[in-house]
Amino acid sequence: MSPRVIVQKAREARLDIIAVTDHNMSENAPYVKELGERTGLMVLSGMELQTQEEIHLLAIFDEYDRARELQSMIYGLLPDVPNDTEFWGDQVVVDTEDNIVRMEDRLLINSADISVEDAAAWIKAHGGIAIASHIDSPTFSIISQLGFIPANIPLDALEVRNLERAGELAPFIMKQGIPFVTFSDAHYPDDIGRRRTLLTMDVPDCAGIERALKALGERALRARQG
Question: What are the chain's domains?
Answer without folding.
Answer: 3-225 (3.20.20.140)
